[in-house]
Amino acid sequence: MIDLLEALMILCFGLSWPVSIYRSWVSRTAKGKSLIFEVFLWIGYIFGIVRKFMLFAAPGAELNTLFYLGWIFYFLNIVEISIDMALYFRNIRLDKV
Question: Is 59 left (phi over 0), alpha (psi -120 to 50) or beta?
Answer without folding.
Answer: beta
